[in-house]
What we know:
The complex is a heterodimer. Chain A is of the alpha+beta class. Chain A folds into three domains: 21-89; 148-232, Immunoglobulins (Immunoglobulin-like, Sandwich), CATH 2.60.40; 236-314, Tetratricopeptide repeat domain (Serine Threonine Protein Phosphatase 5, Tetratricopeptide repeat), CATH 1.25.40. Chain A has helices spanning 2-19, 84-89, 98-121, 236-245, 248-252, 255-268, 272-285, 290-302, 306-314, and strands at 21-28, 31-34, 42-43, 49-51, 55-58, 63-68, 71-75, 80-82, 152-154, 159-162, 171-178, 183-189, 193-196, 208-217, 220-224, 228-232. Chain B has 17 helices and 14 strands. In chain B, the strands form five sheets. Chain B has a six-stranded parallel sheet with strand order 4-3-2-10-1-9, sandwiched between helices. Chain B starts with a helix and ends with a helix. The chains are: A alpha+beta, B alpha/beta.
Amino acid sequence: MKTFSLFLFLLATSLLIGQNEVVVVHAIGNVTYFATPQSAGQMVYPGFRMALPGSLRCETGARVKLLYNQETFLIEDTKMHPLSELAQLSKGGSNLGFTGRFWSFLTGSMSQSKDEKALEENHEHFMEEVYAGIKGFSHKTYPVKTSQLYTGSLGTEPITFRWSDESAWPVLRFSLINDAGSEVLFALVQKGAFTLDPKQLAMAPGKAYQWQVTAVNGDAPVAQSAPIVFTYDPVGHEKLMADLSAMAEYQAAEPVEQQLMQAYTLEKAGFNYGAAQCYDQASANNPDNVLLRDVHAAFLSRMDLLDAAKKMLQQPAGKE
Amino acid sequence: MWKKILRPYASVVSLVVFVIIGVLSVIRINFHFLDPFSNGIKDYDVTDIVFSRFRSRQSVIDDRIVIVNVGQEGRVTLAAMLERIAAADPKAIGVDVFFSDHKATSTDSVLQAVLRRSGKVVTSSKLINYREDRQEFDPEAGVDTFFSNYVRTGYANFPSANSKTIRFFSPQENTIKGPAYSFAVQVVRQYEPAAAEQLLERRKKLERIYYTSNENNFLQFEPAQILDTQIDLRLLLKDKIVLLGYNDPYNEECPMLDKHYTPLNQQYSGRTEPDMYGVVIHANIIQMMLDRKYIFTMPGWLSILLALVYCYVNILLLEEIHERYPRLYYPIIRVLQVLEFTFLFFLLSVLFYYFRIKWDFSIGMLALALYFDVVLSYESILNNQRPWIEKLPKLFDKEEEE
Lengths: 320, 402
């Protein structure tokens, strides 16, 4: 009797534990699990097991397939999802036995033919079910325009984030979010630029951050910029410059050539903002250099700053 | 008792039914006007409904097999992934990638070195140029000797007709260089040789694949996760089978690459979209071999014999019903036919689902569909009043004769 009771207890416990466990079957991109709201996030991977009271969040573009109670669930938005949601969504697996599935197949076929009949009789109700065509592959458009200057890596130098300015947007909300999805800084600003000194913030080296600007009317968002992800790299910029300075070709080059080499090296390593500063400085020092002007304009066009590039090319060299 | 069972009328009509079925199967008419219909159903098998609709929807992770997506990574990344996987000490590694040619020597050398070191890797190959006269294929292709000299290879060919649905696999084929084994067999030979031997001892040229899983039944890793040194792969891959292949449904550029039609497709007739990546098909075959769950096909002669008996019993039943309910026999028989079709479908499904017995009872179904109409035609011919016809057994005006 005792053995039997022990067996029942173990069985019930294992069933309960099994039901409260969520297993990651497939994960793409950065997906973070928070055991409690206060705890640090853990990156998940296939085979990772999570307790039901926890929460899960996918970064932009990430998605995760979870197994809970013998059912699979796909999460692909960037919201914080308490895992307890799964318990509500779960239908307890498909508990239908073979005969039940057979019967639902037979009756399902009948309902399908009924649908066809309803469609013929009242096709207007079914017109919005299917659209033959594609949306195309352009990126989502955002009313608040930014540029590629802030993608890649950003160093310790003060950064001026710029975006398109319109009178219809008197107040904008600048926000900086860390890789766990928490907002680490926000500011309400009035103009199309906001300068930030990374040295004054406790930013983690090597970690990704995302910034975004939202035009607001009261609390309501009116327009947004695309979320832009960058990596905070406080030492990469200096290291690149140190390596470049050690090269014989660099040492033998003219000052303007050296500035171009710096800009090219930084852009290639993903320090777009640093590269832009090099170009700006070189152009300011050499206003008559047509080649430099063209190279600078090409860089701006690569950074999605086509208007600025066009403006630069339209200005005659030497008349800044 | 025997008098009740052995009835001349039932024997003659059964014979006529089977003669008609035989004639229909011999005469081939190309009904082009039926093409939309025939194209839709030619790819259809009753067991496909069992696979796609009657299978349990509950997902359980198979903890013996892990799938790793190789995406569109180059050989250097693939080598790095293999290095990390091999270090986690799995029992077998299957790489469902054709290393068919030389790329850069440096990268190829890195990959070759990793393959050599691991000693557990099976890579994909292709069987080409079947020679009818010798009944052999050319030596395995699709993998350069620069790699194949150091690893086991297994062919990734699947026999499939125009429909492209993968229902079978061939465990072993003959090549000019000797026997070649399929990719799944080679992986199982590495993981559990006894299971592979058991399959080969069945000596079947083709094995029907017993599909039990889709991709949700396996842990699926991405290249970045394999290369992430913060993840302890040993906990996840040790003593398992790791299958590397293309498994990238979210890749917008080529989501259909190496994706195929299987009986698990929800659209069991007139399929429009492939449903399973090649690497998952291999995983299903491996599962089938490890679980020793093979599909048994009812011999053709037994199916025909049972169909004949079934047709005969139905005609006996018709005789009985006609005798008892001479005014109502027609609707009763029609209703019975529909019920029997449903019952036969249920029976065939149960046999396949629970016992993995594949019984092709299409002749029996055809006999069921035809027998009553044959009886009606037969009776109307008998009304011709020709002397030799009158000698044949009758049913409908039996009472009057008696």
